[in-house]
Amino acid sequence: MSPSKTPTPLDPISTWRAWQTLTIIYTILLNRQIYRRWLLEQKCMQNRPLRERFRPVIFLEPIPTLRKPNTKTKEATNNPFNETTMDKLRTRVALLRARVEKGKELASEIERRMVQDPPIRFPTHFCHTCVEDGERVEVLLTTCGHRVCRTCIKYGVDENGVYECSICFAPTGFVARSPVVLVKDYPGEVAPILKEGEVVV
Ligand SMILES: [Zn+2]
Ligand SMILES: [Zn+2]
Fold this sequence. Notes:
The protein has helices at residues 12-45, 83-114, 150-155, 180-185; strands at 139-142, 147-149, 174-176. The protein is built from four helices and three strands. Strand 1 (139-142) and strand 2 (147-149) form a beta hairpin. The longest helix is centred in the N-terminal third of the chain and has 34 residues, at 12-45. Helix content is 39%, strand content 5%. It is mainly alpha-helical. A three-stranded antiparallel sheet has the order 2-1-3. The structure holds zinc ion (2 copies). One zinc ion is lined by residues 142, 144, 146, 165, 167-168, 172.
């Protein structure tokens, strides 16, 4: 075999299978990061009085399967010959990969804050986008389990007023705000808990 020989490109079905396998691998890695962050949140909360605790809302991602590709229906979402489908699949892999990297960063940031000197009261409570401390600014919890400050919300709102999570790249709502003790400390900056999709700017 000559060293300059280029490898034969994969046929569309094998290409689809390869990308679909990547979505499975990255989803498993992502879930490991999500679970790791959930454990850290629990650990930070366990010694605090009940009124100072807040719920970490964290959902694991459903793991895709290597289902049989559909080559008969042109519009099928698993048709390897549909270019749009393949583009979406490649984009999905790129986003999952970015979320795994971000997950690692968030967990390391929490670990760093847990041992910070002087100690901070809420090591898990910071904006996941700009890392601003939740003790200094109001930080809201999204339905997808991320924390975001009001400044970053402004940059993530589309023309319809819907906030798109800068980590999940998906529209999301808000389920909670800063813990009670912080609300008490910053009464002027407190806003009501928003309903899904609702944004106060
Ligand atoms: Zn922020
Ligand atoms: Zn999110």
